[in-house]
Amino acid sequence: MATWSEYIVTAAQHSKGNAAHWFRYLGKIADKDVSQEEIDLLYRNERLTYFQRVSLKYAFVDGSPTRERVLGSSRKANLDMMVVLREKYEKIDSGKQ
Asked: Is this prediction's pTM over 0.70?
């Protein structure tokens, strides 16, 4: 049986370029008990895009907009919100807050 991290890497490859599809994959694992170490390992995985790594990281942060989005992933994606989230996380990770 594949681990959840293998699932995420495979999902990342299948959903490249489609944020709504990626968030649906995240929604399937967002309620799992995952250690920060496991998240950090995936964050450094080069097979995930920058957007995928950052959104994965915030999918496990209680109260983050990303977590709220992936937990409600059955809703249709709001593409404007995806752009806002991407810009926000690029600023956070580059230290430009």
From this structure: no
> Nearest 5°: phi and psi at 67?
-60, -45
Q: CA-to-CA distance for 83 and 51, rounded, in angstroms?
A: 11
pLDDT per residue as tens digits for the range 15-69: 877 888 888 888 888 777 888 888 888 889 999 999 999 988 898 888 888 888 8
Enter the tokens of residue 20. 């709504």
Diameter over CA atoms, the chain: 41
For residues 86 and 83, give the distance between their C-alpha atoms in angstroms, rounded to a whole number. 5
**Cα(93)–Cα(11) distance, rounded to whole angstroms?**
23
DSSP letter (8 states) at residue 63: T
Beta-carbon contacts of 49 under 8 Å, excluding residues fewer than 6 positions away, are: 12, 16
Q: What are phi and psi of 7, to 5 degrees?
A: -60, -45
